[in-house]
Write a structure and sequence with these properties.
alpha+beta; elongated
């Protein structure tokens, strides 16, 4: 009986260790963007029926694992070096829009989501404002 109990404890401990190692390996890779102060996940088929789930940067990886039907995500930053960021995602600016309170860059990059805008495949939207930067794949749904 003791040998069986010891074997069960050892098996459980081994399984728990493997699970922790896998979570450490998988969680950071599930987010499209690293280091954001807050994250929003877009759930639904299109921007018309999109539901937005927002959380802090520290809980984003775990929150992402609990969501089904994610069709995009965004992250906010106090500041961001656009050229360095684009290099990190192999991004290229396709076109930009200048508004009274922001500059929006629509790009193609190595990111998981995409939409067609003005006949071009876009999968990265960067909105630069005085108070911070929001990046999203494929685009920022809702207000920004």
């Amino acid at each position: 009986m003791r040998k069986l109990r010891s074997a069960l404890i050892a098996a459980f401990t081994f399984a728990a260790a493997v699970t922790v190692i896998l979570l450490i390996a998988v969680l950071p890779n599930r987010l499209a963007f690293d280091g954001g102060e807050s994250y929003s996940f877009f759930i639904g088929d299109t921007s018309k029926d999109c539901r937005v789930v927002t959380c802090g940067g520290g809980e984003a990886a775990i929150k992402r694992l609990t969501l089904n039907g994610v069709c995009g995500e965004s992250a906010t930053f106090k500041s961001l070096d656009l050229e360095q960021f684009l290099a990190g995602v192999n991004g290229e600016v396709l076109f930009k829009e200048e508004l009274s309170d922001s500059v929006n860059y629509y790009c193609k990059a190595d990111l998981p989501y995409s939409v067609t805008l003005y006949g071009r495949q876009v999968n990265l939207h960067v909105c630069v404002k005085n108070e911070g930067v929001t990046v999203a794949s494929p685009i920022i749904f809702g207000g920004y």
